[in-house]
Amino acid sequence: MATAAVALVLSLPVMAANDVAADDAEEQLRFTVVPEAVMSPFAAQGIAPRAVAGILSVHNQTALTSDSSYKNATLSGDHSIVLGSRSAVSGGYSTAYGNQVVVSGPDGSAFGFGANADGIGATALGAKARASHFALAVGYSASATGTADVAIGNKAVASGTYSNAMGYSATATGANSVAIGTLAKGAASSAVSLGNRAEVAAAATNSVALGSTSSATAANTVSVGNATLKRKIVNVADGALSATSTDAVTGKQLHATDGKVTAVDNKAVAAQTTATAAATAANKAQTGADLATTTANTALAKLASTRVELGEGAAATGTRGTAIGTRSAASGRLNAIALGTDAKASGDASSVAIGTESHADHQYAVAIGHRARVTGNTSTAIGYEALASGAGVTAIGRSATGSADYTVALGHNAKASGASAIALGHGSVATVANTVSVGSASQQRKIVNVADGVLSAASTEAVTGKQLHATDGKVTAADNKAVAAQTTATAAATAASKAQTGADLANSLVSQVSGTGNVRLGAQNTGRTLDVRNQGDLTRTVSGVTDGALSATSTDAVTGKQLNATNQTISTNAAKVQSLITEASSTGTVRVGIGNEGVRLDVRNKDNQSRTLTGVSDGALSATSTEAVTGKQLHATDGKVTAADNKAVAAQTTATAAATAANKAQTGADLANSLVGQVSGTGNVRLGAQNTGRTLDVRNQGNLTRTLSGVTDGALSATSTDAVTGGQLFATNEVVKNQQEVVAGNTRLIGDNRSSIATLRTDLDAATANLDYAVMFNKERTVVDLGNARISGLAAGDISRADSREAVNGGQLFATNARVGYLEDQQRYVAVGSDEYSEAARAGWGGVAIGTGTEAAVDGEGATALGSFAKAAGDNSVALGRAAHVHAGSAGGFALGTLSQVAVQNGVALGTASEVRVGAQSSVALGYASIATESNSLSIGNSNLKRRIVNLGAGTADDNATTVAQLNGALDGLGGGASVDATGAITAPEYVLSGGTYDNVGTALLALDSAVVTTKSDVDALGSQVNRLFQEEASTRTDGPGRLNLGGAHGMVLGNVANGLIASGSRDAVNGGQLYEVQKNLQGQIDTLEGRGSEPVAMMARMGTPVDTPVDTPVAKVDAPEPVVKAEGDNAVAVGSEGKERSVRHVAKGTADTDAVNVRQLNDVLTQSNEYTDLAVEGLNKRLDGMDKRFNRMAAMSSAQSAMAMNTAGLKTYNRLGAGVGHSDGESALAVGYQRVMNERGSATFSLNGAFTNSGEKTVGVGVGIGW
């Protein structure tokens, strides 16, 4: 597993992607150790242990030796680097660049003044940035103190575990929270704040605040405003309508519901009356429904585009554009994304602007940060006021500016204005094309972690401090060796001197000549002959003789090998001798030694002193050149160092050998007296066997030469080292004589050239005085030995060409060192490099990848990945946050937050662990763990996590979301207490009709319809009964208007009549019972009268003439032939006869059933009967009146329903909301209805309506329509 370092890869048309993979075999040998407290939060999110950077096994350590510029820096840890004053690193595999930088954990990185990386895998980039375990802090005073936090921006703070804060002073303090935008705050767990000053309060867990100044204060909510600022949510897709659905409904859906209510109301009207007006209204409603279907189909075409607009004044005018934030504008033609207050994404294709006032004005442009701006194609600007104004430009950091094509500006206020130039680090300036700058004229940096450059004449690679240090080490070693050689040589000279003293004390036969170990025989006597014959006077062979010098003045003995070579030369090379002497041509060119095979030209003088060879022309410099080079041609510093080192080694070896020889000479001197007596069993004598000298000197004490006699003929061969005798030399001379004839012919030429050679010799002798200071080659001619000397006066070598072989002087090297120092000094905040364990970020063309293991469309283009293990695999996609992932093929996808994922094109996932899954094209998942599974949808939760949308303004357009207040208004129209309760559930209405209770509109309408039908039947029956009871026709009203005639051809019995008042003035009707009592009273009186006599009795009454008695009425006589009073029938009493009726006056009130009643009693009964009848008729009239008014109210509601339906019939939208007013004979009504088209074909509709009168009557209706 790669360490948790941060790698930056900027992929441009002229810059290849960096792809460094870890060694799998070595990876298997390492063991990752992560504390359980740190690992458990990742395990809870399902992150494999290998995805967490660990503490790797240690192998070697690198420490930087401080100089005067960097004091008190401390380092402890394997594979770690620290650079800066008062900086400290205390963990393996860590890096610290800058003054007062602190890294306190393994795999940490801190760049910038006062940066602090405290924990495993922490990365702090920027002055005073602070990061903890696996966290990333980018920007001035950015703080990421929670596990795996990301804080990007000036003073951005991420302190909750796995939280993300991006933007100036953005704050994410809740676990898994995300705050994006200037002063955005996410204080709750799993909160998302998006926009300038957007805020999620601490108690509002799992909530989202979208847009400038939006505030979320309750848990599991999505806020697009605050207490005083309300915003609409527009372009909302229709939510699913089911018993378990948690989707937000649109105004269109609510309008459809109102339409269904209207339809139900129309149905109720049709049910309660069969009048023509109701039927006509129903027909019009049907016509309106048909028109609504057509309108809905038309509206579907208008909703085909998929745009997202969240925030006051937000506008997404391009295809698949996304504008989130106050006054944000995504006006690019295709896939534009504008996120933040006043963010503008106007690039022609796939432009992205994230942050307050950020602008992405060209195609494939990406601007992230407050006032970040991109004005060039395929360019990227990340950071506060970052500016990318050329094509293919990348500017990252506050006020970073790339103003020329294909430039890169990385760091706060970095400026790159030269074409294809790169400015790395705070304040760095790159004004020259195709250059890399790590500082400015006033601020320099060091470049660290540079690989060793190739050292060759054609190399243009930078050399490292390590290489220069190695060179310095070689120089120091060579100097040390030279000093050691000098010391050893001095000791050897001392030892040789002692040996000389010892030899002087020995007999004169053996003499130690010098400290070289040579032996001189007979140096103390005056003899001229050295006789080596034995005691038998036999000659000896002198063996072990070194080749003697061959010259006119040489006194060295020659060996058989030399004589044999001479003989061979004389016999075979006469022609060569001829050519040798003629080497002085007319051109003036001289070639020395053409006739021999020697490989060395020794120009030492007679004193064996070296000469300076001057006036030498520059030799050709090539791989095959054998020409001598001049001092000014020596250019390779390493060559000089190597030569010095070789010389020092050789000197050391020689001096050591000299010391050894001197010691041996000392021992030999002590044994000098016995040297001559060294005779073995063979009788041979070996002189100087105990020393290492190479010369046998037989000169006497007067320095005169001796004759060596008694010498046996030496062997003559190419390898012989025997001394030759005079006889052998004589034979050779004879051969020479044979060649004299040839040589004689050339005598003249020799004489002509002798003066020239003499002159040359004189010149050579004159040059010998300075030969010791000449440049010397080794015998292979591969090394030039300067003897620790300096080369001065060297002209500046050509360093403008890769194939230059000219030597550089100290001034040039100083300038190079100064530039390297400048780069190193400016490199304190930025490092480019990796060790063998790092896993590199990778990016495709036009992509940006920042973080360990990040990938930005490696095989695609235009992607952006930010955060450890973030992967933006789709073209022009964006993945921000640890392990954020936009899958391959998901072009235009946007994933923001730890573990957020997008698996479809143009999907947007905002929040930790949010997902847009396969099949959910162009959908949005907002908030922690939100999952979008349907295309063109907005999800703010998942199957287990539900959120509310709060601070939502009332929808006014068909595609606006509606609020609970609007829904409550619609539900109020249903009556019956229908409402939305505190949990969001809809409380069903409750209707009381005809003594029954109904909890839904359908059953209530059925009951109402049944009651109306029953009432109508009862009214009809009552009307029929009334018609049968009374005769109201004019033809039957013969009794006058004050009379009421009962119906029926034979009259009608009035039954169940209560006892009427029988009193004076009573107008009550009397019933049969009362009349029966009167009859009984009368009958009793009659019986009494009958009991007074069985015979007729003539009753003589005082005759008078009362006013009410006819004048001519005779006095009744019982026996009168024409009785005045005639009682006919049994038990009858008569007081008159036909035509002579009489009044019975002063009749007392009857009390018994058979008593007669008087007129007053009868009138009372009639009065009571009349009053009862009047009251009954009045009550009936009132009921009929109420029925008439109810009919009028129903008619008014029907008229209102019809008006409402007629005014919505022509609307061509998914949702229709209508209202109508009706009036009928003094009664008024108001009707409100909502209708929703359920699908794109318009083949199914749902409606909800209600009507209300001024007297309190209410009707509701729910309807469903299906067509095919």
UniProtKB/TrEMBL annotation:
InterPro entries (alphabetical): Adhesin_Head_dom, Coiled_stalk_dom, Pilin-like, Serralysin-like_metalloprot_C, YadA_C
Signal peptide range in chain numbering: 1-16
GO biological process: protein transport
Residue span, Trimeric autotransporter adhesin YadA-like head domain: 76-99, 104-129, 135-156, 158-183, 314-328, 350-372, 375-400, 403-428, 860-882, 921-943
Domain Trimeric autotransporter adhesin YadA-like stalk: 232-268, 446-485, 542-577, 613-651, 709-739, 790-821, 1056-1089, 1146-1177
Keyword set, alphabetical order: Cell outer membrane, Membrane, Protein transport, Signal, Transmembrane, Transmembrane beta strand, Transport
Residue span, Trimeric autotransporter adhesin YadA-like C-terminal membrane anchor domain: 1216-1268
One GO cellular component term noted in the UniProt record for this chain: cell outer membrane
Tree of life domain: Bacteria
Compartmental location: Cell outer membrane; Cell surface
Family: Belongs to the autotransporter-2 (AT-2) (TC 1.B.40) family.
Protein's UniProt name: Autotransporter adhesin
Organism: Stenotrophomonas rhizophila
Lineage: Bacteria, Pseudomonadati, Pseudomonadota, Gammaproteobacteria, Lysobacterales
